[in-house]
Amino acid sequence: MRIPLIAGNWKMYKTSSEAIVLAEAVVKALSMPDETQVVVCPPFTALAAVGQIVAGSKIGLGAQDLHWAKEGAYTGEVSAEMLWDIGCRYVIVGHSERRQYFGETNESVNRKSLAALASNLTPIICVGEILFEREAGHAYAVVEAQLKGALSGLTSEQVQGLIFAYEPVWAIGTGKTATPSQAEEMHAHIRKTIALLFGAEIAQGVRILYGGSVKPDNAKELLGRSEIDGALVGGASLQIDSFAAIAKAAKR
After folding, report:
1. Residue 122, strand partner residues
2. Between the chain's N and C termini, which has fewer beta carbons within 10 Å?
3. Is 167 designated active site?
4. Angle formed by the axes of helices 139-150 and 106-118, to 10°?
5. Which of 104, 133, 167, 227 is catalytic?
6. How many domains does the chain contain in total?
7. So what does this one do (predicted)?
8. Positions at the binding site
9. pTM for this entry
């Protein structure tokens, strides 16, 4: 059975001192049994501080992005090795906001994923369609192209440890949510695509999270679907009560 994973993407919220308070609350509330994993992804400025709080707990630490180069003249960027050094074990790659606002492409997602794996970080690779693409009937084709681009050149061994997150972009920060059926159908398509590329055994082992306005009141129904292996939580991860409720809804 795939272990559910709940990842909190704090986006550009929380100063270092605020992040410490939230991280302490997460550790206290969510040092859960092994049947559920919890990861927090603070902004870069709070990673080291939060890393100290979650060290030794069952809470994992993740970053929100990285650069594909090991080092170099890339002002403002952060490498996989730097993230590993301060305790990160996960990194979000290709989030829809990175694609929309900062020119992230399938090629850059691929390069970042390879860089993460080279430093033993587990990428959480995000895919998802915008509203126009869904309404035009292109959602599956768009997500399939994103997957193929992101996974180009990866081996089956590398893919089997990856985490994916399906983000219906039209449901992020809008209050809209894909229905459980819509979400599960896309998750099944993602798994089918991975199976065609790397085999059914690999596809059955990877975890696919749902990310798109996940809240306590819809978490149980979404996370109860067999193809949905957890959630990439945005705004609701910034309040301990809502994040804890979502994480506890993932218990199987």
Report:
1. 90
2. N
3. yes
4. 40
5. 167
6. 1
7. Involved in the gluconeogenesis. Catalyzes stereospecifically the conversion of dihydroxyacetone phosphate (DHAP) to D-glyceraldehyde-3-phosphate (G3P).
8. 9-11, 173, 213, 234-235
9. 0.96
